[in-house]
Amino acid sequence: MGVDMGHIFLTGMMGCGKSSVGKSLAYKLDLPFIDLDARIEERQKKAINDIFAESGETFFREIESAELKNAARHEPDSVISCGGGIVLSEQNVRIMRETGNVIWVYRDIDSIIDTVDIQKRPLLKEGAERVRKIFEERRERYEGSCHFKINNDDTIDRAAERIISVLK
Ligand code: S3P
């Protein structure tokens, strides 16, 4: 990998393992790790669930885009784990592609439904069928916006290694 490789953005459905894979990847590459959802929660001093409940999804998407832009433009090269809906905005996709590599972390939707912590994710609370529908609606966006798709169907460590090998 070159010196000016830019950021590594991780996209994909909620519960696909972006944060765990991202931390492992950042450690292996000795890069800072940024979790955009965590940044939003710090800045708003509220859980994502409460932001959705009190201010609605549109407001959440606005601050999510602002946080992405801020990190992409002002942070040194980092591994950036994004919320699952980041690809919904064309502008977000453009910023990610201009400032780094976009990796779609793919995990089978049934494994996600079986294992994810539903309570922390407002959209998942609406049930398994809704999650499947969201995935079908977004699939093309994940596919079309990424430079590489990586399977997270084994260990976190292997998924991180896969990312490193495609970026070499
Ligand atoms: C969302 C995913 C969540 C969080 C919010 C909305 C989505 O992030 O940003 O609940 O629309 O897919 P994770 O993908 O990190 O769970």
UniProtKB/TrEMBL annotation:
Broad EC category: transferase
For this UniProt record, the keywords arranged alphabetically read as follows: Amino-acid biosynthesis, Aromatic amino acid biosynthesis, ATP-binding, Cytoplasm, Kinase, Magnesium, Metal-binding, Nucleotide-binding, Transferase
Which cofactors?
Mg(2+)
- A GO molecular-function annotation: kinase activity
Q: At which positions is ATP bound? A: G15, C16, G17, K18, S19, S20, R121
- Summarize the subunit comment: Monomer.
* Name assigned to this protein: Shikimate kinase
Organism, by scientific name, is Christensenella tenuis
